[in-house]
Every structure is written in structure tokens, then in C-alpha cells.
Amino acid sequence: MDFLMNLSGPLLYIIIFLAKTVEVSISTIRLVYVNKGERVKGAVLGFAEILIWILVVSSVLHNIADDPLKIIAYAAGFSLGNYLGVSIESKIAVGLASIQVVVNEKEGDALAGILRDHEFGVTIIEGKGKDDSVKNLLFVQLKRKKIQAAIKLIKETDPNAYISVNDVKSIIGGFIKK
Fold first, then answer.
1. In sequence order, which ranges of 39-175 are alpha helices (DSSP H)?
2. 48 with 84: CB under 8 angstroms?
């Protein structure tokens, strides 16, 4: 701790910036884990996050009137940390999702077959669209990591498909590809 308190100038700004970037990135990922019910992972990340936060905030507040550039380093680290945290989270893609697809009746069975061939669970419901046209509604429950693969298959089969993707807190029963 004394190490940070005795630093000044560009090295201190870089340390504050990098530490704040890491701390906010951890915070973003922690919030996702907590929201998805991953308590242990959330707690471990929270412990690391708060340790870094205490060190960074104490170094920023120490003699802040004499060195206001520490505030700029802190704010820049916060901004980059948000960006990186969201980017990392999208790569980790924790949790489950639901894709709803609306296609014409004739494409529905073919699309369901293709998705099932790729081990996606699919449920089909018949519906009506504009002017009473018959539509198939396909419901696909999957891991978030598999969203892009499923969307690619859907678009290759029916480029005009209407696709809606939602996060899912939990699923009980059914089939989810491992």
C-alpha cells in the first residue's frame, strides 16, 4: 500500500488506469455470474474486485488536490473496463437463451429438421400472420455460446426468417445441446 502512496507521475497514472480497467472488467463479469445464479463465482470475483477497488481508490484520493490527473486515469480506466468487461462477457457467454423464429409454413419443418440435425431442441407451433397466412413459430432453447451457430443455420435455410433472441434465467426439462 505504501508503494502506491509514494508513487507519482506517469507510472502512478498507468497503474491506476490498468487497475481500474481490471477492476471494472471483473465487476461486469461478476454481475453476470450473480444474475445467472452462479453464487460462488460471483463471490470470488467480488472479493478480487473489492481488493483492487480499495487499493485504487485510496491511491486516487491520497493528495488528490495536488494531483488531479489521477482522476482522469481513474475515469479512463473505468470507461475501458466497462468496454472490456462487456466484450469478455460476450465471449464467455454465460447462461441460456431462447430463440423464437417465425417462418412460412413450408420452411418450418425443414428448418426444424436442420436445427435438430445440429442437436438443437426445437418446438414448432402453428400461427397466423398478416392476411391469415399460416406461419410456423419455432422455439429453440440453447446455451448462449450457441446463438450465432443457430442463427447462421436459420439464415442459411430462410434468409427472410424473423428471429428474436432472449436471455433465459433457467430452463426445466427439455433438451439443451451440451
1. 39-61, 69-92, 105-117, 147-157
2. no
